[in-house]
Amino acid sequence: MDNKYVSVGKILNFHGIQGEAKVGFSKNQEDFLSSLKFIFVKQGHEYIKFNIKSIRFHKNFALMKFDGINSINELMEFKGAFLYVEESTIRESLEEDEFLIDELVSLEVFDQNGEKVGFIVGVSNNGANDLLSVKTKSKKIVLIPFVKAIVTNVSIKDKKVVINKIEGLIE
Fold first, then answer.
1. Please, are residues 156 and 103 in contact by the beta-carbon 8 Å criterion?
2. ∠78-84-88 over CA atoms, to 5°?
3. 56 vs 30, 40, 51, 64, CA distance in Å?
4. Is residue 155 classed exposed, middle or buried when 0-12, 13-18 and 19+ CB atoms within 10 A define those classes?
5. Which CA distances in Å does 168 have to 79, 84, 142, 143, 160?
6. What is the DSSP annotation of 41-82?
């Protein structure tokens, strides 16, 4: 079975002259990135494994040093490349109430009375919390804060999400 890969960052540029990569990544993922021993870079249709020699954080970026890359020139061909981990690696680090975005997209959304509200078309973040973008029956997109008080149940198996329908939340 082919491994599925999930993007966790992007090589934005080099940092210094020793081949250290300046990596952009999602907010609050420092602990997860720090736990990684290796990462994959997609080149063409192949995923190339890079061992992570060191990682440190500077401003909102990760500075990663990879084994075998010791100069700007060796790193430049990977500038703009996305960094991936195997999906199984991410699954191991997910908390019980955390999900992968692609698992949530297309799930149907119901209110607590079992009435269909719509389906999830995307997930975003407003800096405070994750937001589910839900396309309603009237074809409008509404943003629903992905918090326990509102999203009461997520079942990947049943492909559905149950929300508390709060006044003004949906048209």
1. yes
2. 160
3. 9, 18, 15, 7
4. exposed
5. 45, 39, 11, 11, 22
6. EEETTEEEEEEEEEEEEETTEEEEEETT--SHHHHHTTTTPE
Q: What is the pLDDT of residues 64-86, one digit of tens each?
A: 999 999 999 999 999 999 899 88
Question: Rounded to the nearest 5 degrees, what angle is found at the Cα of 108, between the Cα atoms of 149 and 159?
Answer: 95
The domains found in the chain, sorted by start residue, are 5-93 (2.40.30.60), 101-163 (2.30.30.240)
Query: pLDDT tens-digit profile of 27-67?
Result: 778 888 898 999 999 888 889 999 999 999 998 899 999 99
In this prediction the pTM is 0.63
